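Practice problem: predict the structure.
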Amino acid sequence: MSKKSKAEMNVSPADTMHCSEGWRITGYFTPIETDYMSEDKTEVDIVGVGKMSFDSEFVRTVFDEDLGYGEGWGKTRFGWYLGNYNGHWHKSDAAFDANNSPLKPNSIAVDNSVIPNDSNVTIPGLPDEYGKENFVSNDVGVTVHGKHIDVYTGEGKDAERAMYRVTFEDDNDLQEVCFQPPEAVSGKQ
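Answer:
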């Protein structure tokens, strides 16, 4: 029996896994205010709540334009989340991705012109369990463009340490990335 081409098998290109080399991988996490011990406080004006003070280092970690964190979320000492997006501070019961859905441990931020939203993505060169993870491209980032993926590592200091373990930005450490568009995952045609 001879092998058939994709055209002969009537398989859509969306059904295939797309793989390429040369991807820059970074990480992001949700800081928890109680992990920060600064005496310095920063007051922020929260939409619908008013002005409140938080640990300054925590606030800088959530939102620091100089570091490229133009938007972000952090868990406050009160148990709810403080987010900065669209130029304002917001209160929420969860940290959200760009689609207003709660962030999940397998979330990644991508450039949707390169990898479609809700694609399944693997990055086999990542360390530990991250190299075996099936990620979902359900977030975007203000600094994520082209062949760049930002991996969500979770909440707190352990997640911050994991963020550094999954970061590969050096030209010698660029990664292979494979993705399957959502049409292929759901069987839509």
